[in-house]
């Protein structure tokens, strides 16, 4: 039977290279094979696996946009049916917006027909665009979550829901929820992405029974924005940019520490750079921005974004319009000048849902989609300063990241110690490595929160592997 993965797949499929056997998700961690230590170092540094890599040398991921034969769980004849290109047409911003609107609405109408939609909302543009396209769909339940002393993300979402008469719940992320959920998270994600920073699990139980289809706004910010590259950037400069983009704060240090502990040949930095260079060379696009976008869609989206989306999928099926083939193909024909600065989405909202465009944009506090260019105007600076002072003197410290509630404090420290200083785990990743990065985290906070999260993820992998 012929099967296909999406241009941006909704989920990863791992198979055994020697036999072609598809490996069920619940066996991914417990698979009996040879650990791919160099790729695990990349995972530690970046938070996801690159290309078709996995924890094991014998297991590979079916690439995006692949067509293959499957018979009784055995796959063969894997071939690519779509390659990212850049073939811009001579169209205006208005034409691009009109084409986007038509494709976007057709994709969404087909995807949600007859479904009870669950729509996560935020203060950004991607979920706001979904809200505009779904304004006449019923039934629809929307929600958002934020922190008690956060930046008010739930307030933006509530205004969007009220403008479209959506049923809405706002949730507050509480302290210490992670430890009661971490083993369940490990089962769901099989430890294939850094999973302690995302907040979905905090509201997992509350979302059950709210509908039968999640409509998610992931990846709109990548497809419909520039990548920050000069038009004349060289290949080496593109590799340098990717090298900086994929590495999380503290990630290079952790990758190097594991590389050295496992006595791997060469240097971690060279290995990562060569991997990026090899993967980028497979994309035959001259335009630097289009090429970086294609790289991110091939690797970030399919190995990190879709992994964490699986949390939603264990509650209800998911639908991700920006992952759909029609929008991916459309993007390859749009001039980069119209993709910069979210112009198409902004014009779409201003023309199709002005009631949503008038709601303040989280990225530019106090400004909406009609007047956000004035955010940096001299006369608006006093307003920005007043908001900054108000936040500084509000009750409680400003909470912006999940690790601040899940990693700090006596009870969190106790739970972290039990996981990353576990003797079994330290037989694989030494106590010295764990202690070094935990102490860096305690002294520097955000600069090393990723490293602690990865150590926690790797300890969950090791625990499940040996259960």
Percent strand: 5-15%
Spatial sequence of strands, sheet with the most strands: 8-7-6-9-10
Estimate the global geometry from the Cα principal axes.
Answer: globular
Sketch the major β-sheet: 5 strands, parallel
Q: In the residues, how many domains can be counted? A: 3
State the name of the first-level CATH class of the largest domain. Answer: Alpha Beta
Oligomeric nature of the chains:
single chain
Helix fraction bin: 40-55%
Q: How many whole angstroms does the radius of gyration measure?
A: 22 Å
Average pLDDT, to the nearest integer? 90
Overview of this protein structure:
The protein has 467 residues and is an alpha/beta fold. It folds into three domains: 103 residues, no CATH class; 228 residues, HUPs (Rossmann fold, 3-Layer(aba) Sandwich), CATH 3.40.50.620; 59 residues, no CATH class. Helix content is 46%, strand content 9%. It has 20 helices and ten strands. The strands form three sheets. Strands 8-7-6-9-10 form a five-stranded parallel sheet. Strands 1-4-5 form a three-stranded antiparallel sheet, with no helix packed on it. The longest helix has 26 residues. The radius of gyration is 22 Å and the shape is globular. The model has no long low-confidence stretch (mean pLDDT 90).
């Amino acid at each position: 039977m012929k099967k296909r993965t999406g241009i941006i797949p909704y989920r990863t499929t791992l198979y055994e290279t020697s036999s072609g056997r598809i490996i069920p998700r619940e066996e991914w961690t417990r698979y009996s094979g040879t650990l791919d230590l160099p790729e695990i170092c990349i995972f530690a540094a970046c938070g996801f696996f690159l290309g078709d890599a996995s924890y094991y040398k014998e297991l590979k991921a079916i690439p995006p946009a692949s067509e293959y034969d499957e018979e009784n769980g055995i796959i063969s004849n894997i071939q690519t049916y779509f390659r990212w290109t850049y073939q811009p047409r001579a169209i205006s911003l208005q034409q691009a917006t009109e084409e986007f609107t038509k494709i976007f609405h057709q994709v969404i109408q087909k995807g949600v027909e007859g479904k009870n939609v669950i729509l996560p909302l935020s203060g950004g543009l991607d979920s706001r665009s979904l809200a505009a396209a779904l304004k006449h769909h019923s039934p629809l339940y929307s929600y958002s979550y934020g922190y008690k002393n956060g930046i008010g993300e739930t307030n933006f979402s509530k205004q969007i829901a009220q403008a479209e008469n959506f049923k809405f719940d706002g949730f507050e992320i509480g302290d210490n929820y992670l430890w009661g959920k971490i083993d369940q998270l490990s089962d769901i994600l099989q430890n294939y992405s850094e999973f302690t920073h995302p907040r979905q699990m905090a509201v997992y139980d509350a979302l059950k029974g709210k509908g039968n289809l999640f409509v998610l706004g992931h990846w709109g910010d990548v497809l419909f924005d520039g990548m920050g590259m000069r038009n004349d950037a060289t290949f080496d400069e593109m590799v340098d940019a990717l090298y900086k983009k994929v590495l999380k704060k503290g990630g290079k240090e952790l990758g190097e520490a594991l590389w050295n502990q496992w006595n791997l040949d060469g240097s971690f930095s060279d290995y990562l750079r060569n991997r990026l260079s090899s993967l980028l060379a497979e994309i035959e696009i001259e335009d630097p921005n289009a090429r970086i976008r294609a790289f991110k869609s091939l690797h970030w989206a399919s190995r990190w974004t879709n992994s964490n989306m699986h949390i939603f999928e264990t509650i209800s099926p998911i639908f991700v319009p920006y992952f759909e083939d029609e929008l991916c193909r459309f993007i390859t024909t749009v001039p980069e000048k119209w993709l910069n600065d979210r112009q198409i989405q902004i014009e779409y909202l201003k023309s199709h849902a002005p009631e949503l465009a008038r709601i303040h944009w989280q990225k530019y506090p106090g400004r909406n989609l009609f007047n956000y260019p004035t955010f940096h105007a001299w006369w608006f600076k006093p307003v920005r300063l007043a908001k900054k002072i108000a936040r500084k003197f509000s009750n409680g410290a400003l909470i912006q990241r999940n690790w601040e509630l899940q990693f700090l404090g006596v009870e969190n420290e106790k739970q972290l110690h039990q996981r990353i200083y576990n003797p079994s785990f330290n037989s694989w990743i030494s106590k010295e490595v764990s202690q070094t990065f935990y102490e860096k985290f305690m002294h520097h906070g955000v600069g090393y929160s990723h490293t602690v999260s990865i150590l926690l993820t790797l300890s969950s992998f090791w625990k499940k592997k040996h259960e």
